[in-house]
Amino acid sequence: MILVTAAHGTQARRLIPRLAAAGTPVRGLRRAGDAEEVRALGASEVIVGDAADPEVLARAMRGVTAVYHVGPTAHPCEAEIGVGVVNAAAAAGVGHFVYASVLHARISALYNHRAKLVVEEQLVGAGMPFTILQPADFMETLNYRRAFRDGVFRLIWSLERRQALVSVEDLAAVGARVLTEGETHFGATYELSSAGCWTAHEIAAEIGRLAGREVVAERLDVEAVLGLYGHDEYGEEGERYRRDFFDALIRWYDNHDFVGNPWALRTLLGREPLDLPAFLAARLPALEARP
Ligand SMILES: NC(=O)c1ccc[n+]([C@@H]2O[C@H](COP(=O)([O-])OP(=O)(O)OC[C@H]3O[C@@H](n4cnc5c(N)ncnc54)[C@H](OP(=O)(O)O)[C@@H]3O)[C@@H](O)[C@H]2O)c1
After folding, report:
1. Which one of 9, 57, 243, 290 has the fewest CB atoms closer than 10 angstroms to its CB?
2. For the chain, how many structural domains are there in total?
3. 231: buried, middle or exposed (CB in 10 Å: 19+, 13-18, 0-12)?
4. Would 199 be classed as within a structural domain?
5. What pTM was estimated for this model as a whole?
């Protein structure tokens, strides 16, 4: 049994079907949504509960041979949750812990990177076989659908800075391979990036080329992003954290490129990673049908 956390997130929605298709039993853990949505992905068991709760984690680890852990997005307790998941897995004698971290987790100015570095450190010292995956920014979460519809590609940080990207489909393929092959990947850390490094202007131009019309890049106001989060149990503390989180993110990406290298991903996939033009081209029919 493999435990996948953040079981209805961007990564798990692509990983769980791959594991299920290979005949691997999966238990999904999600916070509050519908268990049936995770079952529909192919999970044989689902736990709906807070990964910050040790009792939930102890239950989630029962009979588990491997864990694929994804930390929650822009969450004030991402590091504490990750450390708790690592400790619960080690206590349960889990045989392989795969941690979905982030490319350049060592960038301490970024809250989501800093949190992942804490979890990586705990994992490396936990005495349990582990593999760390460090993906670049996800292609799937770019605002390309709206860009195709409105002719404006919006990004929260500098339109001139370059970012390394990876398709979550490729990340899921690597996750499934690493979980299935196990020991070959014990102790490894893989940086996962496609070829190329893109400014917002270049992404807009690429979408425009496919759409057959001009698409321009425009700066997205942070308030629009913060508005997506609504209220949670962390109340004002959570809102303050997310504001600081995005302020730090914008400050860093305004002043630095986020570069990656495709060699490790190419080797693990045994083929060329999906790059942005191929990713967008594959989605073109869906975008044209439902812009
Ligand atoms: N976006 C990027 O470009 C990028 C790049 C590299 C790394 N990452 C990292 O990837 C991670 C997010 O992965 P994702 O995009 O697959 O997830 P996601 O789409 O943001 O979904 C989050 C999932 O986590 C679950 N969750 C949240 N808080 C939880 C809690 N306290 N206990 C249990 N489950 C909880 C949610 O449950 P419900 O479904 O019930 O709400 C949801 O299923 C983040 O750590 C992010 O930093 C993102």
Report:
1. 290
2. 1
3. exposed
4. no
5. 0.97
